[in-house]
Amino acid sequence: MNNNTTPVSSPLARRKRKTIHEEPDSPTTYKRIRANPLESPTPSPQILQIQQQDRLVRATRILSSLEKDQLVHIITSLVANNPSLEQEVASHLPTPTIQSVRNLLESSEKKLNETYPYSKWGPDRTSDYAFNRVRPHLTELCSTLLHYVDHFTNPSSYPVTQMHEYAQNSFTYLHLATTIVHRLPTWQTQTHTDQTKLSLYAHVGAAYKLVIAEVGRKVREEGKIYGATLLTEWGKWLHEHNAALNGEFGFGEAWENFRTQLGWLIGLYPAPTSVQLQQPQSPGHMHYPVSAALGLGGWGGSSTFLTS
Fold it and tell me: Looking at the record, which segments are called Disordered (predicted)?
């Protein structure tokens, strides 16, 4: 008998030897580890990176399938449970624009309008029953309006590179917000109106005064120049809102502040003495009378913006 006969390797033995000589980061090794994670308690950095990428892909697919409200809930819950994430999450949020907020408000107002109950006379926009029916959507719209009033009119909301947008964004948003508030119902129960429509008017009126003071300061102290067309548009909006509200809720004071602090730039008010004493400006910076800028005889006429 030949004792030197080479034993035939079994398939299992060959498989074990092959496994021993596999590269630690080879695809085969990775597949085996995924099938049996306990086989490699200390995977290499490359394997860890692949595993992390896998988790991100799975998370991305799941998040992509969620509705907006679900995503908002997830993010707000994460921030609530991990306050340290607030700054990081905020740094990734895009800056709101007038157009994006306009779209948001239009959507919110549409939901509100679709919620009013109907009677034989049409939508019920005054009764206590209707108020309780639409309260969630009404509260959402009011909260959104107030949030962006504070955002657009607060100078600290603007980084240095966007500070030049402050005046235009502020006046445009306040006009948009006031126009929406005009359309809100006046309820049979006065406290309901006080808590919604009238409260919003007061908040917007105060914001108008803040913006006018800030823009006036920029003109006086920083020499900021605003075009006659823009100033005329801002003044016309405020004038018509003030007329619609009979000067209430701070709009009368805001209009007077606009006239005295900015109106002289478009001929609404005598220029301050310090400006009158300056040398004449070049034609490109002349302050045109408001009637010339508007092509009208003044600020009279009907307020058409409410129905436009």
Answer: 1-44
More confident: 61 or 213 = 213
pLDDT averaged over every residue in the chain: 79
For 241-277, give one letter per residue: b (16+ CB within 10 A) or e: bbbebeeebbbebbbbbbbebbbbbbbbbeeeeeeee
Residue 204: pLDDT above 70?
A: yes
State the average pLDDT over residues 16-21: 49
How far is it, in rounded angstroms, from Cα 121 to Cα 124? 8
d(CA 264, CA 113): 42
The Cα–Cα gap between 295 and 154 comes to 33
Gap between the Cα atoms of 304 and 308, Å rounded: 6
pLDDT of the residue at 272? 67
Residue matched to tokens 């409200």: 69
Q: What is the mean pLDDT of residues 258-278?
A: 74
- Best CA proximity match to 235, nearest among 200, 273, 287: 287
Token couple for 57: 């892909």
Structural domains of the chain, with CATH = 22-61 (no CATH), 98-296 (1.20.58.1590)
> Exposure of 126 by Cβ count < 10 A (0-12 exposed, 13-18 middle, 19+ buried)?
middle
d(CA 198, CA 201) in angstroms, rounded, equals 5
DSSP category for residue 58 = H
Max Cα separation, the chain?
A: 126
> What would the mean pLDDT of 236-260 be, rounded to a whole number?
96
Would you say the C-alpha torsion 114, 118, 122, 123 has a positive or negative sign? negative
Please give the helix or strand (H or E) that residue 164 lies within, else none. Answer: none
Lowest mean pLDDT among 78-87, 118-127, 162-171, 218-227: 78-87
